[in-house]
Amino acid sequence: MNVNRVSFLLLALCSCLEFSVSAQGSSKFAKEVENLVSGDSAVNRKDVVLFTGSSSIRMWKDIRSDFPKYNIVNRGFGGSETKDLLYFFDKLVLPYNPKKIFIYEGDNDLHFGKSPEVILASMDSLITLIRTKISSKVQVYLISPKPSISRWHLKAKYEEYNKKLQAFVSTRKKVYFIDVWSPSLDAEGNVVKDIFLEDGLHMNEKGYTIWVKEIRKYLP
Length: 220
Hints:
- It is a single chain.
- By secondary structure, the chain is an alpha/beta fold.
- It has one domain (3-38, 46-215): SGNH hydrolase (Rossmann fold), CATH 3.40.50.
- Helix content is 45%, strand content 12%.
- It has helices spanning 3-21, 23-26, 30-37, 55-58, 63-66, 82-87, 89-92, 107-111, 116-134, 155-170, 205-215; strands at 48-53, 71-76, 100-104, 139-143, 175-178.
- Strands 2-1-3-4-5 form a five-stranded parallel β-sheet.
- Helix 1 crosses helix 9 (116-134).
- The longest helix has 19 residues, at 3-21.
- It starts with a helix and ends in a 5-residue tail after the last helix.
């Protein structure tokens, strides 16, 4: 076993320990998650395309009309980190037996000081759950953390993570990287300012138009 693999396994172990310790923290989302799944009896479970992750997914109100040919289920929950999605996997991912899963996590992780290695270890655990509990054939799409006005001071950390996320994806089958960072920058490399709500963090309709363009490459 090579050194890099050993290092990553150690990080995964640390992630598992962190996951155990942080379970109480994840439980703060329990009520929101219960509200999300309360109407599940009416959800069409055939050929589900699942979108999940933090508030950029939760607040995507037009997601179904943006991809009208697909059976879209939105299970985003605001303020979540990768470890939180891992914690609620059995409620927010597993029941839908999705054919494709689009995940947006990492944005809040970076904001709260998590290292790329810790985030990727959690992401690796999440993908392992998908492969073992659903199917090895599920296509998983990891959406890069977006730039934003309110978190632009963390630009270097975001760029580092996105680079490592892309490398992470390249070593895994049926896992894809969707870059929403680059198309959200202007010609000078600064974040485009008119794609956000007043809080400078969450996107308006123009911001989601960028996402739709990138994701339609995988949902034509």
